[in-house]
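can u pls check wat happens w/ protoporphyrin IX containing FE
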Amino acid sequence: MKLTAEDKHNVKAIWDHVKGHEEAIGAEALYRMFCCMPTTRIYFPAKDLSERSSYLHSHGKKVVGALTNAVAHIDDIDTAFSKLSDKHAEELMVDPANFPKLAHNILVVLGIHLKPHFTYSVHRSVDKFLSTVAYVLASKYR
Ligand code: HEM
């Protein structure tokens, strides 16, 4: 999926409002995913996945931090996510069908919390960006 110049502009603009809130946004997106799509929990055995757990918050910060890095390298997400894709494919062995599930929940959280900035065109651009991230993350699977 090709991100247009307008998409890149929209994603960078909304990400200015994400920066500094990576942990809260990430934790809520993960919590919603674990709640609404409970099969995703199987990759986190023995972890405390409750709403206020320190694990959920620290992991959420890492996930959205990685997205902040992808936004900073929006012209070359493949390279920016190369190691992360390897890790999910080779080490964590996460079924790539799960990536769009987290992408969906991140989109929901941004829509709720950044509503004034979440115009139709920003919605479309962020959806395309997260779909690209999910696609790139799945690219090392063979
Ligand atoms: C670890 C990002 C989707 C399962 C990680 C890490 C990052 C990350 C940054 C930490 C890597 C490290 O410490 O070296 C992302 C992004 C995703 C995504 C950006 C999609 C938008 C998923 C999904 C699952 C998953 C959908 C499973 C349902 C895991 C697991 C770990 C991990 C099990 C290891 C957790 C731990 O060490 O405690 N991910 N991830 N990821 N991810 Fe993902």
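The pocket of protoporphyrin IX containing FE is lined by residues 40, 43-44, 59, 62-63, 66-67, 84, 87-88, 92, 94, 98-99, 101-103, 133, 137 (CB under 6 Å).
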